[in-house]
Amino acid sequence: MSFRAAWSLVLRKGGLGIRGIHSPGSTAHGKEKMSPYTNYHAQRSYPMPDEPFCAELNAEQQALKEKEKGSWTQLSHAEKVALYRLQFHQSFAEMNRRSNEWKTVMGCVFFFFGFTGLMIWWQRVFVFPKKPITLTDEWKAQQLQRILDMKGNPVQGLASRWDYERKEWKK
Amino acid sequence: MTSSALTKPQVRDLLAKRLRFCIHGSCSFCKFDVAAPRKKARADFYRNYDSMKDFEEMRKAGIFQSAK
């Protein structure tokens, strides 16, 4: 959600002439003020901000606001919806809608996994120094032989798994 | 206020009860499934263990510095 918010913020800030970017499905707003961020994008955690979404109202909207001061039973359904849209940026259903952002995120994650893998492989080939002598296969075999000769952990451990008569690992 | 048929659920000592249960369970598990097999393995190993023979094998393998 924050990814989308940040991206649309970039769009809005970047193109000062582009004032008409609306989120899909929203009705026509009055002039949207460049307001503090908490009110700018609807948040589940801050459902009823102090400031209404549209602060600058045209005459028609101001008339509606005056009508709101009277009895609400006299408001038509469309008027109620219009008042809601003045007050709030998005309804809960709109702000909680699913998106396909996770696919982008996972794609980027895997891409960078792959890139990291390539970097590490390149480093292995061109950067790493020679293995120390103790890590060569020959040395490791001699080390293992010595441990078996010393009968390390003969009860339940390593030497208990070696068959000393047949000189091989126990099945 | 008429009394209903609902019984009051237990509200006290919930953690103590759970701890007792868990500690009892882990202790018996440890005793019977961890400690006992190990003791048996050690007993079986040392029942017919000849330390001199073992020593001779090690000496022949050449790992000692003071007994060649």
Question: Key terms for this structure?
Answer:
heterodimer; A: 171 residues; mainly alpha; Cytochrome C Oxidase, Chain D; 3 domains; two-stranded antiparallel ribbon; 7 helices; 47% helix; B: 68 residues; 0% strand
Structure summary:
Chain A has 171 residues and is an all-alpha fold. Chain A is built from seven helices and two strands. Chain B has a domain at 16-61.
Biggest sheet of chain B: strands, sense, closure?
none
Main sheet strand line-up of chain A: 1-2
Largest beta-sheet characterization of chain A: 2 strands, antiparallel
Helix- and strand-based class of chain A?
A: mainly alpha
Give the number of domains of chain A. 3
Q: What's the N-to-C terminus distance of chain A?
A: 57 Å
Separate helix tally of chain B:
2
- Assembly type of the chains comes to heterodimer
| CATH superfamily grouping of the largest domain in chain A | Cytochrome c oxidase subunit IV
Give the CATH class of the largest domain in chain A: Mainly Alpha
| Computed Rg of chain B | 28 Å
Largest interface: A-B, 9 and 10 residues
Average pLDDT across residues of chain A? 83
- Specify the helix fraction band of chain A: 40-55%
**DSSP E strands of chain A, number:** 2
Give unreliable regions of chain B as ranges. Answer: none
- Helix coverage percent of chain B: 55-70%
**Helix and strand succession of chain B?**
HH
Can you write the helix and strand succession of chain A as a string?
A: HHHHHHHEE
Strand content of chain B: under 5%
Structural account:
By secondary structure, chain A is an all-alpha fold. Chain A folds into three domains: 40-97, Cytochrome c oxidase subunit IV (Cytochrome C Oxidase, Chain D), CATH 1.10.442; 98-128; 131-170, no CATH class. Chain A has helices spanning 2-14, 37-40, 59-68, 77-87, 92-95, 101-126, 137-149; strands at 162-163, 168-169. Chain A has a two-stranded antiparallel sheet with strand order 1-2. Chain A is rod-shaped, with a radius of gyration of 34 Å. Chain B is 66% helix and 0% strand. With 68 residues, chain B is mainly α. Chain B has helices at residues 14-47, 51-61. Chain B is built from two helices and no strands. The relative contact order of chain B is 0.05. Chain A binds chain B through residues 146, 149-151, 154-156, 160, 164, and chain B through 38, 41-42, 45, 54, 57-58, 61-63.
